[in-house]
Amino acid sequence: MTIGEALKKKRQELGLSQTEMAAGVLTKSYYSKVERGLHEIKTVDLLEILAIHHVNANEFLEQFSLNKIEKSKSVKYGEIIRELHKAYYSQDLEQINEIRTQLKQEKQTKEIENLDAQAAMLEVGIKKDPNILSKEDKYQVRNLIFKTEEWNQDNLTLFSIAIPLFDFGELKSLVKSIFKNFKDITTFSNTIQEKVAAIAVNYLQNMLFYHYLDQETLNLALNILKKMTPSPSNCFAKIMASYYTAVFSGDKDRVRSILMFLRLNGMDAIVEKLKG
Questions:
Q1: By CB neighbour count within 10 A (0-12 exposed, 13-18 middle, 19+ buried), where does 187 fall?
Q2: Vertex 125, ends 201 and 182: CA angle to 5°?
Q3: Which of 48, 125, 133, 177 is the most exposed place for a label (fewest CB within 10 A)?
Q4: CA–CA distance, 18 with 167 (Å, rounded to integer)
Q5: At 37, which helix (H) or strand (E)?
Q6: H or E element: which one contains 210?
Q7: Rounded Cα distance, 143 and 138, in Å
Q8: Where are the annotated coiled coils located (predicted)?
């Protein structure tokens, strides 16, 4: 259980709204994002909120310091994510299949199902063929996305690599929902910004590859990339904003210039992917 989930549980036990629980320490908007795992909460703010509502801080915090099983699960989840990404970037299909076999032996929680879906999509990415996905895997991936009630790091990651499984009508609806949810993108963590940027980039590339143009979502995707916090972790998002702006406006000289920049910085694989 995360701190956000614990706060939500305690708030519901107290019968309070998010505004009442935030108690002026945080804005309702910020507090809501803490509950959803989109923002972190400072220790001093957490302790103040607990004190205001007469919640024993030691008992509340004990579940995070002593719940070794949950901590172990979190560590294991992170390790699997790293192993999957390592296998993908080394194009190691055998390793991905081994990980999927291990996941099938785990209790099928929402997190495990999400990991398995990500593994299935990474296999598709390596083989560059969405048709290799079994009907069962395709249903699982699509179902996890369509069942999403609140976008978080896990389902954003899954959707960013599952875009080829959706038709353009479905994609338009989904990306509009995401870009609306994260329109104030700079107020979110760097990790969330990176996930949303990946969705914008992959959606634009998908639009380009299939020669499909929807001006509304094109503008939404470009705008959210341009609005990303100007930090080192968002450099690629900013470059891609310039690249796709040039592509869709027909500025061939600008496109060549950006592709040359990427090649000069050792990103030949990305250039080849962009060129399709």
A1: middle
A2: 30
A3: 177
A4: 36
A5: none
A6: none
A7: 8
A8: 93-120
Q: DSSP H helical segments within 210-251, as ranges?
A: 215-226, 235-249
Among the listed residues 215, 139, 140, 209, the one whose alpha carbon sits nearest the alpha carbon of residue 172:
215
Q: Which residues pair with 26 in a beta bridge?
A: 23
Nearest 5 degrees, angle CA 64-CA 186-CA 174? 85
Closest CA to 245 of 213, 267, 223, 214: 223
Q: Determine the pLDDT at residue 73.
A: 54
Per-residue pLDDT tens over the stretch 153-179 = 889 999 999 998 999 999 999 999 999
Task: Decide if 168 contacts 237 (C-beta within 8 A).
Answer: no
Contact 157, 117 (CB under 8 A): no
H/E/C letters for each residue in 49-90?
HHHHCCCCHHHHHHHHHHCHHHHHHHHHHHHHHHHHHHHHHC
Q: If the chain, 276 residues long, is cut into consecutive pieces of 10 residues, what is the mean pLDDT of each piece?
A: 88 94 90 87 87 88 58 62 82 89 84 89 84 90 90 90 92 95 89 93 92 94 94 91 96 96 90 81
Distance CA 200, CA 217 (A): 9
Residue 134 CB burial class (10 angstroms; 0-12, 13-18, ≥19):
exposed
DSSP for residue 137? H
For residue 177, what pLDDT is reported?
94
Backbone Cα Rg of the chain: 21
